[in-house]
Every structure is written in C-alpha cells, then in structure tokens.
C-alpha cells in the first residue's frame, strides 16, 4: 500500500469513527479563535474554553481587548500557563486587527503568519476552520499519530510533517482529517498511556502494529 493509498484509507475510517469531529476550541467569531489558539499552546483546549469566558466577559470585542492593559489580560489568562507572553501577543495581535484590518482577521496565510504569536499551526487552523480553505494543522496529536500510522517516516518537526502530509492528503480533507486525529489521539492512540490498539479502527493498517 502506498502512502497515498494508506492516507485515503485512514481518512475514510476516521470519518466513520468520528463523523462530527471539529475544532475543540469554542468560538463564535474569528478573532476569538485567534485568541484561543494562542492560549492553547501547552494548555488543554478544555481549560482554554473556561478561561476565555472570563476574558470575553470583560473584553467582548476586538476594540476592547486591544485597549486592555496587558497586565489585566495576563491576570485572566494565567491559568493557561505562559501568561506574560500570551497576554503580550494577544494584546499586540488585537491592536493590529483594529488598526490594520478594521477589527477583522486577515484572510491569507501569509498575513496571519505576520500576527504576533501566530505560527503555521495556528494559521492553518484559522484558514481551515474560519475560511474553509485547505489546511493541515500539525499539533502534537497529528505528529504522533501520522508517525505511528506510517504516513510519515520519523519526522517530528511540525513544518516538515505538514509538507509531507500535503503530498498525500487531498486538500479538501486536510482540516477535518487533523481534527479527527485529535479525537483519535485523545481517546485511542494516546501519548501518556499505552495506545488502546485493541479498539483502534486503524489497527490492521497501522505501521506500528499492522501489516
């Protein structure tokens, strides 16, 4: 089985296993996803979803958050860890949205990358979830699973994993595929315990345990 064939089979099986899989960060506006994905670095999405409730209660829009004191932002987001750097990035990012983009999130990958605290993973998430564009989000679950499955060969650097996946994942499938990897990585192909291969829908084709 080629990597392209393996990729298509994995995509179809994960679709059946997780038909409703989507982003696990709560948001109803694009700028909120931008904030949440910055807070999610080295923090669980579940904790981020709780913390941002207080943040948005006090600063309900881009203008309010852009005008907020960085120390006040830090006080609220501290439970997510790395509070000082995250608060600084969020503040700077919101000011740029206000001053340069009329409060809107820019729609191109290159523009997103220029925003403070936004890397390739975050930019891909925004492009895929907000704008419906082809995207591959190489978070820790994605990197771990595609290596175990055999879609990439011992590649751990996020950008290199992303580039390798672009070659074998149909563009229209990338965003949802990565979301499904998150669900599968949390429930079955876990990192901190032994993977539950006995209940994995990919066991017979997985590079780690299959044929």
Structure description:
The protein has helices at residues 3-17, 30-39, 45-58, 62-67, 70-77, 83-100, 109-113, 120-129, 140-149, 158-166, 174-187. It is mainly alpha-helical and 211 residues long. Helix 2 crosses helix 3. The longest helix has 18 residues, at 83-100. The mean pLDDT is 96.
In a few lines, what is going on in this structure?
With 211 residues, the protein is mostly helical.
What is this structure's SSE topology?
Layout: H1 3-17, H2 30-39, H3 45-58, H4 62-67, H5 70-77, H6 83-100, H7 109-113, H8 120-129, H9 140-149, H10 158-166, H11 174-187
SSE topology string:
HHHHHHHHHHH
Amount of helix: 55-70%
Q: What's the shape?
A: elongated
Mind describing the biggest β-sheet? none
For the record, give the distance between the C-alpha atoms at the N and C termini, rounded to a whole number.
10 Å
Keywords:
single chain; 0% strand; mainly alpha; 211 residues; 11 helices
